[in-house]
Amino acid sequence: MATFGERLKELRTSHNLTQADIAKIALISDRQVIRFERDVNSPNANIVMALANYFGVSSDYLLGLSEELPIDSADEITAILTNNRKLADSFISLTNMYFDKPDIDIEGRQTMLMALNNLNDYLLSEIKGMSPKHAEETKQLVRRNNDAIMKITASMQAALSSGVEPESNIE
Fold first, then answer.
1. Cα separation, 116 vs 100, whole angstroms
2. pTM (predicted TM-score)
3. Which of 52, 55, 59, 145 is deepest in the core (most CB within 10 A)?
């Protein structure tokens, strides 16, 4: 079985974190992180819990007592985040591409709004159980979607207040 130091270093490097990053997360010194990774010192329960929560793993896994990662950790969360990013990027690209086209009527814009809101609901539901780092990445996607929602809403309000609905080429 792996040691705490080996697991800590493995998780740190797989998440592209520095030892200084780990020190901030666990509220310890950089020197302590080095000692933990070298298995010179052992962490207390508060440090183990802070790191386990951050990485989304069990304390048993982090301490080397278990070989099993939780189902929703590591590769699966990376895959979810990658998929969420691709989904959000694609939708934002499509929205931006068609947003200012005169042939998209108010109903079309309302459909885009509904789809963006549904995407945000989905992204927010994915946050539960994620580590703070992964949750923050997902929240950034939601904030970006909210910008698109505001843009579409403003365009709809402008069209409605002018009394002129964008023309529709669709018969």
1. 17
2. 0.45
3. 55
The separation between CA 158 and the C-alpha centre of its own chain, rounded to angstroms, equals 33
The identity of residue 152, as a single letter, is I
pLDDT tens digits for 118-131?
777 777 666 666 66
Long-range contacts, 151-158 (Cβ 8 Å, 24+): 151/99, 152/95, 152/99, 152/109, 152/112, 152/113, 152/116, 153/113, 155/99, 155/100, 155/109, 156/106, 156/109, 156/110, 156/113
Closest C-alpha among 63, 40, 41 to residue 51: 63
Please check whether residue 4 is in contact with residue 64, taking contact to mean a CB–CB distance below 8 angstroms: yes
Q: pLDDT, tens digit, for every residue of 22-77?
A: 999 899 999 999 999 999 999 998 899 889 888 878 888 889 888 766 545 445 65
